[in-house]
Design goal:
Blueprint lengths: L2 H7 L3 H31 L3 H8 L4 H15 L3 H23 L1 E4 L6 E4 L2 E3 L1 E3 L2 E4 L1 H25 L4 H7 L7 H12 L5
Antiparallel strand pairs: 1-2, 2-5, 3-4
């Protein structure tokens, strides 16, 4: 047993549960802060502008923005988008830890969560995380922080003007405009 696992195991059950959940949320906050920094760097905005932006968009939209910035940079985009996808995949765990009721798992050494699933069918899966599960998530989040730092370094080199010129939508040709006009004339009246 690692020293961290031992330290958690020596805590009383109720304190252990809140300590594990609190530690998870602290790790996640560092990850999300790194994502916010990547967006700031990629958009060439300062910390205050980034704080306003980050506090007004959902996590899912942060992921979308970051993937666009990676794509605009173009260098090593697929690998870096894969890193961003890893964060998006792990966000289910963050949502559960942050939003579902939890308590000390009296049958194990960790935490039990009251999870409700309601997509097509209602279910209440038995969801328990042991100390080891938490330690693995902490390690996974730490790894993602390092990967997001790589993303930050890459998108910080993005010249937004160059990217916008490169991805500028093409103006429609006269033929395309004429075709759309003709198709609109062929529509039945409302």
């Amino acid at each position: 047993m690692s020293s961290a696992a031992e330290a958690y195991a020596n805590l009383p059950h109720k304190i252990r549960a809140t300590a594990l959940v609190g530690q998870f949320l602290q790790y996640w906050s560092v990850l999300e802060s790194t994502i916010n920094q990547a967006i700031e760097q990629g958009l060439k905005i300062n910390y205050l502008q980034g704080a306003v932006l980050a506090s007004n968009i959902t996590f899912r939209n942060k992921i979308h923005i970051l993937k666009v910035l990676v794509d605009l940079r173009g260098i090593d985009a697929e690998r870096l988008k894969g890193y961003v996808d890893e964060v998006a995949t792990l966000s289910y765990a963050r949502n559960m830890v942050a939003h579902d009721v939890f308590w000390a798992d009296e049958e194990g050494d960790g935490v039990k969560f009251a999870v409700a699933k309601a997509k097509n069918k209602l279910s209440f899966p038995d969801t328990r995380w042991s100390i080891q599960n938490f330690l693995e998530k902490f390690e996974q989040i730490n790894d993602l922080v390092l990967k997001m730092q790589q993303v930050t370094t890459t998108v910080s080199k993005l010249s937004l003007a160059d990217a916008l010129l490169h991805y500028r939508p093409h103006e429609p040709t006269q033929e395309a405009v004429a075709q759309v006009h003709q198709e609109s004339q062929d529509l039945p009246p409302k």
